[in-house]
From TrEMBL:
<protein>
    <submittedName>
        <fullName>CENPP protein</fullName>
    </submittedName>
</protein>
<dbReference type="GO" id="GO:0000775">
    <property type="term" value="C:chromosome, centromeric region"/>
</dbReference>
<dbReference type="GO" id="GO:0005634">
    <property type="term" value="C:nucleus"/>
</dbReference>
<keyword id="KW-0175">Coiled coil</keyword>
<dbReference type="GO" id="GO:0034080">
    <property type="term" value="P:CENP-A containing chromatin assembly"/>
</dbReference>
<feature type="coiled-coil region">
    <location>
        <begin position="6"/>
        <end position="33"/>
    </location>
</feature>
<dbReference type="Pfam" id="PF13096">
    <property type="entry name" value="CENP-P"/>
</dbReference>
<dbReference type="InterPro" id="IPR027801">
    <property type="entry name" value="CENP-P"/>
</dbReference>
């Protein structure tokens, strides 16, 4: 055989021997490190690793699981719309400003509650606060179908001033429900 081939084999053998030596040293170092950890710490690490790998496999669900989950969410949404009377027809969100300390987003939301249509525009300022995020509503603008009623007009103006969306939705739900009852009653007498 050729001397060059023998040299190539010799070089390969030396490289493998060096790799075995390095792996042996690494193994011995790992053995020494593992003696520093208690059995309890090792079990915690194993359980943590298992949770992480289970989370990764959940991310790769089958399409039938995703369809079932979507159907479940649609059923929940239908129930909530029936319960509250709110049917949202559109929503758009635009990020106006984003820094490490705060995020400002402009939202536009439209829909109806029972038979009353509404449209909202507002800015949402989100600021991280320790482990929570605080949100402040500003520049609230409400457009409603039934503004001819002076009480509704006053209520909408007050809500726009205070930027209180929760009060708006609660009050609108109650008002729209009774508005429907009044409308049906007056239709009955016509």
């Amino acid at each position: 055989m050729d001397e060059g081939i023998f040299q190539a084999y010799e070089d390969e053998i030396q490289a493998l021997e060096e790799e075995i030596r390095l792996l042996t040293e690494e193994y011995e170092d790992m053995q020494q490190e593992s003696t520093f950890f208690s059995d309890e710490e090792i079990l915690k690490s194993i359980k943590s690793f298992q949770r992480e790998t289970q989370g990764e496999t959940k991310g790769h669900e089958s399409s039938s699981d995703l369809k079932a989950q979507l159907e479940s969410l649609e059923t929940d949404l239908s129930f909530l719309m029936e319960l509250t009377g709110f049917h949202f027809t559109s929503h758009s969100k635009k990020t106006v400003e984003k820094t490490q300390d705060r995020t400002v987003q402009k939202h536009r939301l439209s829909g109806r509650c029972h038979s009353l249509s509404f449209q909202l525009e507002f800015q949402l300022l989100e600021m991280p606060n320790n482990e929570k995020v605080s949100a402040v509503v500003s520049d609230l603008s409400i457009i409603m179908q039934s503004r001819e009623d002076s009480n509704v007009s006053k209520f909408v103006s007050r809500t726009e001033e205070h930027g209180d969306l929760i009060t708006f939705f609660r009050s609108l739900s109650t008002y729209a429900e009774w508005y429907e009852h009044r409308r049906h009653t007056f239709l009955h007498f016509k």
